[in-house]
Amino acid sequence: MLRVRVTYGRVSDFLRDVREQLVRGGLLVRVDPGPIDRGAAVEIHIVTPAGSSTVAGEVLQILAGAGVAVGLDAGMLGDLILAADAWSGDDEGPEPSHQLASDDEALALEESIESGRAAPKGMGAAQAAKIQQALHGDKNQRMAILRENNKMLHAYVLRNPQIQLDEVIAIARMTTVSVEVLTFIAGRREWAERAEVASALVRNPKTPVPLAIRMLDHIGQSEIRQLAKQTSVREAIQRAARKKILG
Fold first, then answer.
1. What is the mean pLDDT of residues 8-33?
2. What single DSSP character describes residue 216?
3. Whether domain 2-114 has CATH 2.40.10
4. Is residue 40 pLDDT above 80, yes or no?
């Protein structure tokens, strides 16, 4: 099995790769994998100042001189994406490091980054109180948080153990939340497999197109027919809906 480590010194670099690559189902890992076949299993360890996660994937393509394209489900990184989206610490650090997992230099960089992640700077008492309200407040308090412009707080609402399905549907419809929040919702099976949530994500223009297309698997045929006809739906999603109808 190919084991690789991607270490992000800056949270912003990780979130950029989430938007540009991971939501499309893959990540370009800039390593020389040696002799390996397409479809081979990959274990990828992703490290950021906001946390780390290890997920399984597979080799999609070997790109000579560029690295290896690894296929993986961004939903498996949901907690890490939310943590990164809510990160309020310094965003200064080295460029992303792509290494084979046995590389001692990558391990040392990982440890240096993780050692400083526990105490984000610049968080005042008011902001800390808002986070506690998002995490533990009632429905009215949660909705009030979602109306605020501070998108960092939105991620904490989804971690509130009292959150209900109707709230998740409402959040999935919002164009004011971040792409990372929508990706997290799509990554939670108990939410994403509900037709109402999937429909909200598909129709939300903020949801990345590849993610919205995957959500079509959880929508009934009658609504897929509607999506195929409605001009308000993005063209790529319309095409995907028509393709599902035709079988």
1. 88
2. G
3. yes
4. yes
